[in-house]
Amino acid sequence: MKSQQELGVAVPANKPLVVRTIKQVTKEQREYVLKKTEYSMFSFPADLIFVDFLSDSGSGTMTDFQWAALFHGDESYARNKGYYVLLEAIRDTFERGDYPKKSIDMILSGETNVKKLIDELYLKSYEGGFVNGGIHQLTRPNAFIVPQGRCAEHLLFSTIAPILRENKNITYYIPNNGHFDTTEANISANGIIAVNLFSANLMEDFPYDEMDKRNPFKGNMDLEGLENLIQEKGVDTIPLIYITITNNTAAGQPVSMQNIKAVHKIAQKYDIPLFFDACRFAENAHFIKEFEEGYQNYTIPRIIQEMFSYVDGFTISYKKDGLANMGGFLCFRDKGLFHKKFSINEDIGIKLKEKQILTFGNDSYGGMSGRDIMALAAGLYEVVKEPYLNERKTHVRDFARKLAQNGIPVILPAGGHAVYLDMNKFFEGTDMKISDFGGVGFTIELLKHYGIRAVELGPFAFEWDKKTPEQRKGILNLVRFAMPRNVYNTSHIDYAVAAITELYKNRDKIPKVRISRGAELRLRHFQSGIQPIYKE
What we know:
Strand order of the largest sheet: 2-8-7-6-5
CATH topology of the largest domain: Aspartate Aminotransferase, domain 2
Helix content: 25-40%
Number of strands: 14
Mean pLDDT: 92
Number of helices: 20
Distance between the termini: 61 Å
Number of domains: 2
Strand content: 5-15%
CATH architecture of the largest domain: 3-Layer(aba) Sandwich
């Protein structure tokens, strides 16, 4: 008899205990709503959709452990108990590896020993890492709670930009293996140029039947391109280097530990702070464990600990990676290179905290409810569990494999959180040009005919028409199907595959699109109006 491992199918990782009935909306009703909402994917009511792949940001299902923690939420305005639990959870996750303290257990178990709570949680001093504690978080703050990732990006870039502008004769650049839309927008809004340095093998073909056997880590940063940018523009023009894990803009592809180390070495060589856009750090660690030589016997927490040992700080949306429905964070290493570089006339942490309080609220809640903070802290312990990580990745691979088997041009191997269609190949043989925003037309038809929502992450989202030929080199032409964790099953995937395949067969009928309102807006795909142009 075959063993569990020899069966060749994934072992179930969860069982749903609550279901939600989907409304049976007709094509005509969806078409009417599309017209009334200017054909915007972000304005279409979610309640009228069959399958929603728009984003996995905060749209996943929380675990029973998180729901239990939520009931311990403390809505006190200042220094709610969840604040201390969250900071400890962050230290556990990103610094302590296989040796977490799990202070959350004291709260969840109803600890009544006041001295223990004071000594081990509320007044415990820490310094030297990503999250100072006790008096050190007051005098040298380096950890900032915010509602979501773009808030962390805004806090970071809007605070360092005035410092950089003190030297008015310099144009600044921030390189990344792939800036996501909100990251690029926040960088650009502060007068800095975002540069994408995709791995050279990103768009190379990959056999779908090899996805479980190997991974070329297509999310890596182009090391030669990074060196060339620094040499060409000058060290003084690069305030930060960013690595996005996993690389959402580059089809959700993972970044290898080898590449992280190599970028770290370059950053050290030129004395430039290195940051993670860490939204899917746990999934990236899982790819390293599965496919990178030397890490198969490492635990996920140990891999995460090593990954983060190479960076000076990170921004993160905790809404990704299945962590929680709300939350974000910015932090930097105490007395590290970022702190040294930007604490010129005043401690950079003090400046960041001042803006955090002005913008998002008191520092111990940062625009979040106490309930959300507790659910998030619990989620940090859930997300590093291997069965939890493997479940969504298995669904995503299944989705990508079935599309590839039907001849749909999908980026392979699949990443950990989404499937991406290559729209340049999708429209081969038609008169669709990249400036016609065919990916947007595809999402309109998919929603209209089949009640499935996806998002274009290509020339429309990344403003092809507003950029120079050089900047356009950093724009891919993709449509993303993001998989919310623990929400959809094989029946949803099979329905989506059938719908996408039908549209592919009729791709010559997909309309070109023009922007009818708001072409000049930042992050315009969230708010502008568009108009499909159908052939007569």
